[in-house]
Amino acid sequence: MVNYGGDEVSALVIDIGTSSLRAGYAGDDTPKAVIPTCYGFKSESIDEGDVSMAEPGEEGGANAKPEKKVKLYIGQSGPSVWRDGMQVAHPVQNSLITDFTPIPQLISHALTDVMRCNAAEHPVLVTEPAWNTVENRERMAEIMFEEFQVPAFYIANTGVLNAFAAGKGSALVIDVGHTTASVTPVVDGFVLRKGLSHSALPMLVQAHAKHLLTSPYHNRAGIQLLPHQLIANKQVPPALLHPVPPRFTLRDERVPGTTETWRAWYEAKETEEWIQSVAGVIDQGWNEQAAAQRGVRHYEFPTGYNFYFGAERLQVGEQYFTHSPQLVASNPNLPKTIPALISSALSACDPDLRQVLLGNIVLTGGGSLLSGFADRLSVELQRNVNHVYSPIFFPDNAIFSLLEISASLGTFHQLWISKEEWQEHGKAIVGQRCK
Amino acid sequence: MAGPTAADVRSILSLPSPSTPGLSQPRKPPGTTERARKPEGISRELYSLIGTSAPTLAAQLAKPRLKQKPNLGGGGRVKWEWRSFKNGARADSLRLSHWMKAGTDSEAEYQFAKYNVQSNVYVYSQDEYVRLLSDKEWTKEETDYLFELAREYDGRFYVVADRYEYGNGPPRTIEDIKDRYYSVCRKLVRNRPWAGDEASKAQLISSFQFDKDRELTRKKYVASLENRTPSQIAEEEALFIELKRLEQHERRFKKDREELLRTLAGIECGLPDVQAEEETFVGTQTETKKTKKKGVANNEPETPTSATASGTNVVLAQPVPRKQTAKSAAHDALHCIHRTEIPQTSTTTTKAAHQPVYLRSYKLPTPKSSAAPKIAQVMGELGVSHTRLVMPTRENCAQLESLLEAAAALVETKKQVDRIEHETMVTQERLGNRTSEGAENDMDVDEEGGDAEAVGEDGRGQSVVSTRSVRSNRPRKKSARSMSISSVDTTATGGLKRKRF
Fold it and tell me: What InterPro entries does this protein's entry cite (chain A) (predicted)?
């Protein structure tokens, strides 16, 4: 920390992403609390009163919210626990907070229940995407000041923080998240908003992967993405190259109480896990032979169905870089691929800056951890971009990284919006201070 | 003048006289006070090895200046306290807390506050704007907005241009923004009263210089550079390499030309960029001496002083033949130094003629090209490699040289013998023909011709070995040609033995 000119004031950092909310102390290298951003809820009208009274005791992560007659289930044992009639909602979409109602609960769960600290004693740094709206950041400041009584607050851009975490003032930050892939040019610690480009590419990749799994492929039938919460017992057949249909029994008593949103949430989660453990991308571009040479990988689903996935697992990552012509023909509004995002970001920047940005490429986000992603990206850059560029830099600890460093810098402490300033200037101070 | 003897020194220093006079005098009987006087900072083993013979070294070693060990907090525990502090760079009264060493002043100036540097952006009054800064492209409000942004982003124009959103004004490029900003600054500096001197004012104005058209042209050029196709880039690279090559050629040519000019006209010709290299310089001087001796050149002999000054250089670069004095001869003999004289082939001392240091084995004579294969064969039969000596001492080199000479002589002699032998054979045959029959002259002549040809061919086809064996066994003719190599060896070594000393 000494090298960074750090001065620890024990600030808290809250990084709210589409799939998870990370919270921790500034200056740590990993977040202390990682909880899913999505939450489960049940309308009180369905429940009887005594059930809701009994449940908070059983489930540690649950937090009741009586005034709206809606019960929220938050945290690691929130949506992932099966409950009769529980719905799942996503307050963050496309990296933007679309529904602020559960946000205070989520934050308080992370800070109070997981980290066991009092937000009123610590300055708080919150992150935002580069395309965050003014209303959103003002609302966030309001929540922090009014509900959590924080002494000081700052909202910082993830792109800038990622560039700083990689030790760079100017960088081209490529962030592949859960639902959004973005390319952010950062110059001297400021985001160039005109050069910013982002698309919902990861959602397409996930949809493609889900389609790949659930539809028949070569010699195997479509796979049922059934949650393990609904399976009473199963017999796992030996892992073979030719698929064997799974043998399992469903928990029939649970099936009627399962909601559509919960099922969709689970299927997305299962697909995501499959992508993370099995999928990859070929570093030199799609090639049948190369795909066949890469070998097979084994994956077992909750139903007991298991299979060695071959070339198909490598098609998943391909979606990040190229769209097949038939897909383009059928759907004109496809999200931009990573190379397209990069070139559109660069073309919007000043020609003088392009070399600087391409010399400092920072790759971050959970999606970028796909096996072979970085290699493929450097190949694409060499092929398509007519520039000299240097190797890609990675901030330590991919997603959360050293975001927090900036909140523990000595020179940063003059930027905090204090409670006093908040009370004096109101919402306008947020836009003024957090450029 | 004779210096003081060792005995004198000893008597002066009142040292005991050595038990055995000679070279190994510092040897002292062990176990005396000598060991007790071992200087500080020198290890015992080293001292017993070098003894007192390295006093200067010992003096240097006496005190090892080690870095002092850092005193980390005086050895005791340091108390840290969680204290609140006030950041001087903040306008409000926010108090954050951090860990501080107990005992430090908590109300001292916050150490990071000094990094809060405010950029000084020019401000102008309404009056100044009307008087100086009016521009039909820009309104006062938009200029204000621009200066506000410049202050906010500390003059980072890339960011200013990115965030520039002025209501319903025309779209501004970064060049427009910079142009306006710098022109306003220039005008303000020029027209405001200036406290310093004119030079600093001019310098400040020039730092605000901005040429919009030039900048636009440059941007266009940068863009066109980026839009090159790979083939264009490859072509450009190839051209660049070609250019470098040509340049190198030219440089080499120029250097050669200079070298030549210097050799011909001397250093005084006043070439603009002649580098007076030490080596060639000395060479030129020795050359002038020599040429003067011969009376060819009429250069002024102003060189000797400098030549003697760099005398060692002269010897190294161009060993001037000189007479060995008796003393140096004895010295040479003692140290096994053999001085060789370099044959001065030419009077010019160019770099090409310069004789660098060489290995003795490089200078072995090579046989004449016509006789070379035959000599090589002879050497091969002897089992001696004439190209490489395992131990090329001076004697061995001389031996090999004489051996090569002998072999060459042998081959030459053999050639002569062959010729003579052939001639006698022809003559004898002719004589025989004359005596037996005088009538069939014409036919005989033809036959002779045929015979001679046959012999000639035969001779050409013969190996060196066989011909030499012929020489040693002259009376027998054809039959002797199939002699074994062993006999050849004996003859050859016999011939050699004669030459050996």
Answer: Actin (IPR004000), Actin/actin-like_CS (IPR020902), ATPase_NBD (IPR043129)
Q: Look at residue A394 in the predicted model and tell me its pLDDT.
A: 57
In angstroms, the CA B268 to CA B307 distance is: 17
Mutation target to probe the B interface, by most B beta carbons within 10 A, among A1, A7, A419 is: A7
Flag whether pLDDT at A104 surpasses 90. Answer: yes
What pLDDT digit, counting tens, does each position of B356-387 carry? Answer: 777 776 776 676 777 788 888 888 888 777 66
- B255 and B221 assigned to the same domain: no
- List of chain A residues whose C-beta atoms are within 8 Å of the C-beta of residue B116: 411, 414
Indicate the number of domains in chain B: 4
Q: What residues of chain A lie within 8 A of the CB of B84, using their CB?
A: none
CB contact under 8 A, A354 and B226: yes
Residue ending a domain, choose from B405, B436, B467: B436
Interface A–B counts its CB contacts (< 8 A) at 87
Nearest CB partner across the interface for B98, out of A7, A352, A409: A7
ipTM: 0.78
Query: What value does the mean pLDDT of chain A take?
Result: 82
Could you tell me if residue B317 is inside a domain? no
Residue A169: pLDDT band with limits 50, 70, 90:
confident
Is the Cβ pair B112, A194 closer than 8 Å? no
- Alpha-carbon gap: A76 to the closest alpha carbon of chain B (Å): 32
In degrees and rounded to multiples of 5, residue B261 shows phi and psi of -60, -40
What are the Cα distances from residue A174, in Å, to A19, A364, B87?
A: 18, 6, 35
pLDDT tens track for A25-43: 887 778 889 999 999 998 7
Residues of A (76-135) whose Cβ lies below 8 Å from B: 123
Question: B42 or B126: which carries more pLDDT confidence?
Answer: B126
Residue B185 lies in a domain: yes
Residue A77 is encoded by which pair of tokens?
A: 């044992």
User: Which of A358, A413, A429 is the mutation pick for testing B, counting most B CBs within 10 A?
Assistant: A413
Contact assignment for B90 to A413 by CB distance below 8 Å: yes
Q: Which CATH superfamily is domain A1-43+68-164+400-434 in?
A: ATPase, nucleotide binding domain (3.30.420.40)
Q: Are residues B153 and B172 in the same domain?
A: yes
Is the four-CA dihedral B433, B437, B438, B441 of positive or negative sign? negative
- Is residue B383 situated within a structural domain? yes
- pLDDT at residue A40 in the model: 92
Domain extent listing, chain A: 1-43+68-164+400-434, 202-319
Looking at domain A202-319, its CATH class is: alpha beta
Query: B226 to chain A, minimum CA–CA distance in Å?
Result: 6
pLDDT at B125: 84
In this complex, the residue of B92, B94, B162 whose CB is nearest that of residue A194 is: B162
Sheet with A33-36: strands ordered across: A33-36, A20-25, A12-16, A124-128, A152-157, A417-418
Range of the domain at B259: 236-265
Whose CA is closest to A387, among A363, A341, A343, A355? Answer: A355
pLDDT score of B230: 77
Neighbours of B419 (CB within 10 A): 11
